[in-house]
Specification:
single chain; 393 residues; alpha/beta; 13% strand; globular; binds pyridoxal-5'-phosphate
């Protein structure tokens, strides 16, 4: 008789990780010069800056190691100096006062989610989010016995939830997750919209979790706003993975409401003890590397403009407005209703890796895919030509 397995044993994969593995294998199997443009598989599946940590961050880590710093445990919420630096970031960037005590350094934003969910919700609690959504929100909630409640969104609301959608929920949820800019659509909530959602949550005692990981990567008319400016009970999630270009260093943070500071600290002590010490040193230095990081943003901006112009001519003419992050959410209903099959063929034949929409929207994702444009500028410039040729344009 098979041994019992737990609820977590049934967690679905985070599909993009499987696509990354397939693209690695495809790239390794190709002879040089397999494509006419002389490039290998063009990686548009992965939401990872190709740039690595800013120089000042890497140098701070090297300096600390060369000085023989023992790199032991830190406090569960991280180095005091990093927490204070993050608190200062809120004052400088948003004009919002955040006490250092409310900042918890975590193992990426990914490590922040289980802490936040467990501190805020119980098994059985219902947590709403826009669909399409970042898959781990729902997968982690489900693994913890909580229930994701999907709010189907489309271009009419820039793929973002509205107060009217929340009002229509019966029963009312226990929590709401928002992301602005969001993954996969790259769209944003205007500050007034985020403020209205935060007010609605406070009025109805719904715990708001605001994923702000793509702040700093915005290109359009919509200004960035933090939920910390609008609500003292909201939980804010952020990370050094995107703007700060430090995915593998695994440093993120939470801004916690007062009532959850000690509960999350206890959970963090038990779950992770602390985020990697040397990476915290690097992250603190990264916050002073703005010119290098803004040069990365300028590159994303140029790739975004190029793709918004060239992808429609290549046959991908229904793209999300792409206010921020580094993603384009493409409606490919005219080409397929089976995005995993379409993406597999696109990788095999055109040598372009993209993520099938089913990762982000199980209901409608068969007719969507997500292009990421944070890869090398030369690859992004070559992609539309390859795609157009593949689709016979
Ligand atoms: C919306 C969103 N939140 C959180 C994460 C997790 O980021 P990390 O754990 O690297 O900080 C990602 C990564 O792609 C993301 O897109």
């Amino acid at each position: 008789m098979a041994l019992k397995t737990g609820r977590g044993a049934h967690a679905p994969p985070f599909l993009v990780m499987d696509v990354i593995a397939a693209a690695n294998a495809r790239a390794a199997s190709l002879p040089p010069g397999a494509f006419a443009d002389g490039r290998s598989v063009i990686r548009m599946e992965v939401g990872q800056p190709g740039t690595g940590a800013p120089r000042g961050a890497a140098e701070a880590a090297i300096r600390a190691l060369q000085a023989g710093a023992p790199m032991g445990y830190t406090e569960a919420f991280g180095l005091r100096s990093l927490r204070a630096r993050i608190a200062r970031h809120y004052a400088e960037r948003y004009g919002t006062a955040v006490a250092t005590e409310r900042v918890a350094v975590t193992v990426g934003a990914s490590g922040a989610f289980p802490l936040a969910f467990l501190a805020a919700f119980d098994p059985g609690d219902r947590v709403a989010m826009a669909a399409p959504f970042y898959p781990p929100y729902a997968n982690i909630l489900t693994a913890l016995g909580m229930q994701p409640v999907l709010l189907p969104c489309d271009a009419a609301t820039r793929w973002q939830p509205t107060v009217a959608m929340l009002d229509a929920l019966d029963p009312r949820p226990d929590g709401l997750i928002v992301a602005s800019p969001c993954n996969p659509a790259g769209t944003m909530l205007a500050p007034a919209e985020l403020a209205a959602i935060a007010r609605w949550c406070d009025t109805h005692r719904v715990r708001l979790i605001s994923d702000e990981i793509y702040h700093g990567l915005t290109y359009g008319e919509v200004p960035e706003a933090t939920a910390a400016a609008f609500s003292d009970s909201a939980i804010v999630v952020n990370s050094f993975s995107k703007y700060w270009s430090m995915t593998g260093w695994r440093i993120g943070w939470l801004v916690l409401p007062e009532d959850l500071v000690r509960p999350v600290e206890c959970l963090a002590q038990n779950f992770f003890i602390n985020a990697p010490h040397v990476a915290q040193v690097a992250a603190e230095a990264a916050m002073d590397c703005t010119p290098e990081l803004e040069a990365n943003v300028a590159r994303y901006r140029a790739s975004r403009a190029l793709l918004l112009e060239a992808l429609p001519r290549a046959g991908f003419d229904r793209l999300s407005p792409a206010d921020g992050a580094f993603y384009l959410w493409a409606d490919v209903a005219r080409l397929t209703n089976d995005s995993p099959e379409f993406c597999a063929r696109m990788m095999a034949e055109a040598g372009i890796a993209a993520t099938p929409g089913v990762d982000f929207d199980r209901e409608r994702g068969g007719r969507f895919l997500r292009f990421s444009y944070c890869g090398p500028a030369e690859d992004m410039a070559a992609a539309p030509g390859r795609l157009g040729a593949w689709l016979g344009r």
